[in-house]
C-alpha cells in the first residue's frame, strides 16, 4: 500500500522525531517554556532548573523567559509582590499506541488517534526572611494607618517606599551573590520580554535571596486537528488538549485546581504557539511548485485531504506517527 | 524508522516536473564557415509537456517532452564565385611556352547573399530521458544563506529527436536563394550568358552548398551534426535537471516556526536524507538531528 | 524571412557591342607581345592616345616567368596627378609573353615596346600596337554576344577576312575557359571560320605582322534564332459603328457567294 493512495502528498513524523523537534523548540524558544519575574533577568541562578538555550538565542539576544508580574501579597496597603518562576522543563510526546509514557490510570488507556504528553513543571517562589519583613513593616504600618492619603503621588511616604524598594533590591543583589544556584547565564544585555511589565510600575517587590522550588510531573492526552488562524486560509496543525493529570497531589480539590490552571496555561499559552503550518509538515515540498507557479500566474495551494471522503483520519495519530495527508491544488491563471 | 517521511504521488511529482520544465528555456546563436558558404543559427526554445513515469526499479522516465522553438533562425550566407568570361590556356608549338588568357569578370566583386528563414514552425521535436533521483547536500558559500538539501532528477542518458525538416523547408530555402541570385543577374542576353556560365541557379546553389540530394536533408545534417546543436540541447537539459535545478529543496536547518516579535525562527537540523521512488510515488525520508 | 544582398556593380563594358581592334585595345581584347631576346625594354601604355603608364620589362634568360599579365585599366603611373612613380620593372623569361588587357572601362588602349640601342644611340621600337602587330604576337578576343562576327586582318596591302560564329552558351559541357586558336599566315586565317560559344575566346596567332579587327556583323536574335515566340493574343472587342453606304463599287470577286451586298459590312471576326 502506497503512502499516497488517498492523497497527493503524505507526511509523517515519528514520535522520536517529534520529541527532538520539541527539544529544539524548547532550546530556541525558551521564553515559551519559562515564566518568571524581572529579577530572574539579573539572577538566572534563581531558576529552579537551569535553562538549556541554543547559542543562536544568545547571539540574537532573545529572552530566555517571559517576564511576569510579581505574585501579589494580599492585603498590603500598597501593592507588594513576590518573585516567582514557572518552568516547563521536560516535554515528551508518545503517539498512539502508548509505549514510552506510562499514563496514570485517570488517562489510561490512550485512545486511538490520541497522543500522550508528559510534562515536568517546576514552580519557584520567593519566601522573604523575617529580617526583610521587619525592615519593611514600619512603612506598611504608616501606610496602613494613614487617613485619606494617596498611596502614590508626591507625598514623601510613597516616594520613600519606591526608594526603599530600589535600595532593598540593590542590597539584595549584593547579599545574594553567595546564593548562585547554578551556571545559568543571561544574554549579555539581559533582554526580557515586555520590559514595560517590569517591577517598577508601582509594585514593591520584596527582595529575594532564594527561591523555594518544587517540581511535579504532569500527564496529558491530546490530539491534532487542522484549522486556520485569523483570516488567513493557511492551514495549521493545532494541538488540542483532551485531559490532564497531576500524579499524587493531595488534597484532590487542590490537585484539580492546579490541573485546571495548568490546563489553561497549556491551552491558552503554550500550545497555540506550537501550531505548525501544513507545508512544514511535508518539508515545504511544494515550495518550488508554488514559486514557479507564481512566475506563471498560477495559484498553488496545499490543503488537507478531506475526511472521511479522502482518508479516515487527517491528521492521523497511529503507529507512533503523526500522519498528514494533503492535496495540491493548482489553479491556472 | 526514519523520523520524517514525505511521500509525493506520481501525479504531484508530475506537477513538480511541469513547474521545472516550464522554466527551462534557452537561446543560442552561432555561425560556422564552410568555405563557399557560411551557415549558422539563432535559436530560442523552451520545453513543454512531457509525462513522468515512476518505475519500480527506482528510476523515473520523463518522456515526450516537447521541445518548442520560439525562434529557429537558419542563417545562410553564400559567397557566389566569380562569374567571368574568357580565360583558359592554349598550347603553342615548342619552343614557345603555353599561353593563358586573362579572365574578365562580370561583377566588380564577389556577390554575397544571405537568408535568415525562421524555421520554428516547421520543426517538432521531443526529448525523453531516464534517470534516478539524487539527494545532495549543498553547502552555501554565500554569507547569510542556509545550506540546502536538494533533490535532483539525475538523467543518465537523454534522447533528443533529430532535426527533420520537411520538404517545404527545402523548397523555401531554395526558392529564397534562387530569388536572390536571380536578382543579381541583369536581364536580356547577359542573363543567358551568366546563367550559362554558372550552369543554372539551382545547380549553382547545389554546387556551392555541396548538396548531394535534397536540400532539407542537407539542412537536417547541418543542424544534427555540423552545428552540434543536439549536443548542446542534450547537455543543457541534462545539466538543467542534474545539477542546476533541483526538483525539491529545503533549507538545513529547516525552519518550522517563523520569527516573531523579535524572536529567532525555530529551525531543526535535517539529517540522513534519502529519496527513492516506487512505481506510484516518490518517498523522501530523513531524521531530525540532535 | 530576412534576405540580404550585397550590392554589386555590373561590369557593363563586358557587354558592350563595340568592334575589337588590335590597334585600339578594349575590354575583352588581349594583346600578347612576345619578348624573344634578353634585354631591357621600355613599355608605354596609352589610353585614348595619351600615355598613362610606363614600365620596364627586363627579359632574362632564366629564373623568370614566361608569361606576365598587365592589366591596363588600373595602370596609370603617368596619368595626371597620379604620382605613382615609374620605377617598376617586370622580369620575364626570354621567349615569354606579356599580355596586355583591360578588365573594365570604356577606354581604348595601345601599347608600345621599345629598346635603346646604345651602339647606334637610337631607340628601336619592337611594338606599336596602333599599327601592325609583329609576327609572333597574338591577339585574343572574348566574345559574349551570340551572332556572326567578321574578322579582318590587314597586312600591308593584303587583307584577309574570316568569320567567327558565336552561339548562345548552354549545355552541361559549356566552359568559357576553352579558347580557340586561329592562325594568321600569308594565306590568311586558318581556319577561316571558327565556331565558339559566347563567353569563350578566339586567339589569333600571327605569323606575319598584321592588324586585326573583329566586328559583330550579324547578331543573333535574343532568345535564340531557332526559337519561335509563342504568344497568346486577345483581341479587343470593338464596338460596331454604323457607317454610311460606301460610294465605291463593291467588288464581288471574293467567291463568297453567301455574302450579300450589304452596306457597311465589316469582317466577321
Brief characterization of the structure:
The complex is a heterotrimer of chains A (333), B (290) and C (269). By secondary structure, chain A is of the alpha+beta class.
Name the features.
heterotrimer, A: 333 residues, alpha+beta, 7-stranded mixed β-sheet, 4-stranded antiparallel β-sheet, 8 helices, 14 strands, elongated, B: 290 residues, 7-stranded antiparallel β-sheet, 3-stranded antiparallel β-sheet, 6 helices, 16 strands, 27% helix
Care to describe what's here?
The complex is a heterotrimer of chains A (333), B (290) and C (269). Chain A is an alpha+beta fold and 333 residues long. Chain A has eight helices and 14 strands. In chain A, strand 9 and strand 10 form a beta hairpin. Chain A is elongated. By secondary structure, chain B is an alpha+beta fold. Helix content of chain B is 27%, strand content 43%. In chain B, strands 2, 3, 4, 9, 10, 11 and 12 form a seven-stranded antiparallel beta sheet that branches. The two termini of chain B are 16 Å apart. The mean pLDDT of chain B is 88. In chain C, a hairpin with a 2-residue loop joins strand 12 and strand 13. Chain C has 269 residues and is mainly β. In chain C, strands 6-8-3-11-17-14-15 form a seven-stranded mixed beta sheet, with no helix packed on it. In chain C, strands 2-18-12-13-16 form a five-stranded mixed beta sheet, with no helix packed on it. The chains are: A alpha+beta (333), B alpha+beta (290), C mainly beta (269). Chains in contact: A-B, B-C. Chains B and C meet through strand 5, strand 6, strand 7, strand 8 and strand 9 of B and strand 1, strand 3, strand 6, strand 8 and strand 11 of C.
- What percent of residues of chain B are in strands? 35-45%
SSE series of chain B: EHEEEEEEEEEEHHHHHEEEEE
Helix content of chain B: 25-40%
How far is it from the N-terminal to the C-terminal residue of chain B, by CA?
A: 16 Å
Please give the structural blueprint.
The complex is a heterotrimer of chains A (333), B (290) and C (269).
Chain A: E1 9-14, H1 15-28, E2 34-36, H2 39-42, H3 55-59, E3 66-67, E4 71-72, E5 80-82, E6 84-95, E7 115-126, H4 130-145, H5 156-175, E8 204-205, E9 211-227, E10 236-246, H6 252-270, E11 276-277, H7 278-281, H8 287-295, E12 299-304, E13 316-318, E14 321-331
Parallel strand pairs in A: 2-3, 5-8
Antiparallel strand pairs in A: 1-14, 2-6, 4-5, 6-7, 7-9, 9-10, 10-11, 12-14, 13-14
Chain B: E1 4-9, H1 10-22, E2 25-33, E3 37-55, E4 59-79, E5 84-86, E6 89-90, E7 99-100, E8 103-105, E9 112-116, E10 125-138, E11 147-160, H2 167-184, H3 189-198, H4 201-209, H5 215-226, H6 229-244, E12 248-252, E13 254-257, E14 266-268, E15 270-277, E16 281-288
Antiparallel strand pairs in B: 1-16, 2-3, 3-4, 4-9, 4-10, 5-8, 6-7, 10-11, 11-12, 13-14, 15-16
Helix pairs in contact in B: 2-5
Chain C: E1 2-5, E2 20-21, E3 29-35, E4 39-47, E5 50-60, E6 67-71, E7 89-93, E8 96-101, E9 109-117, E10 122-128, E11 138-143, E12 147-155, E13 158-167, E14 180-185, E15 188-190, E16 193-197, E17 200-206, E18 211-219
Parallel strand pairs in C: 5-7, 6-8, 13-16, 14-17
Antiparallel strand pairs in C: 2-18, 3-8, 3-11, 4-5, 4-9, 9-10, 11-17, 12-13, 12-18, 14-15
